[in-house]
Amino acid sequence: MQCPKCRGNMRTYERNGVHIEQCDNCRGIFLDYGELETLTRMESQYHAAPPPPPAPGPAWGAPSHGGYHHGHHRHQRSWVGMLFST
């Protein structure tokens, strides 16, 4: 299949049951009929999901570090990131 924008080669990916065509040349993304609605519905469900329960705090008598955390914070991934993750 050829890209309708630049005539480059298209590849089809399947992510979460949605077929997505992406151009190898211009990296454009093209969807078939109904796939945009499916992605919109998936996004709504993703953002409506309840947040995970908080991690349990330190046990009584455990040393405290004043609430300061070392390390990296985890950011919530978007539905697009999930769609194209491997």
From TrEMBL:
**Superkingdom of origin:** Bacteria
What are the Transcription factor zinc-finger domain coordinates in residue numbering? 2-40
**Pfam families (alphabetical):** Zn_ribbon_TFIIB (PF13453)
InterPro entries assigned to the protein according to its UniProt record, in alphabetical order: TF_Znf
For region Disordered, the annotated ranges are 45-73
- Output this protein's name: Zf-TFIIB domain-containing protein
Q: Which organism is it from?
A: Nonomuraea bangladeshensis
Give the classification, highest ranks.
Answer: Bacteria, Bacillati, Actinomycetota, Actinomycetes, Streptosporangiales
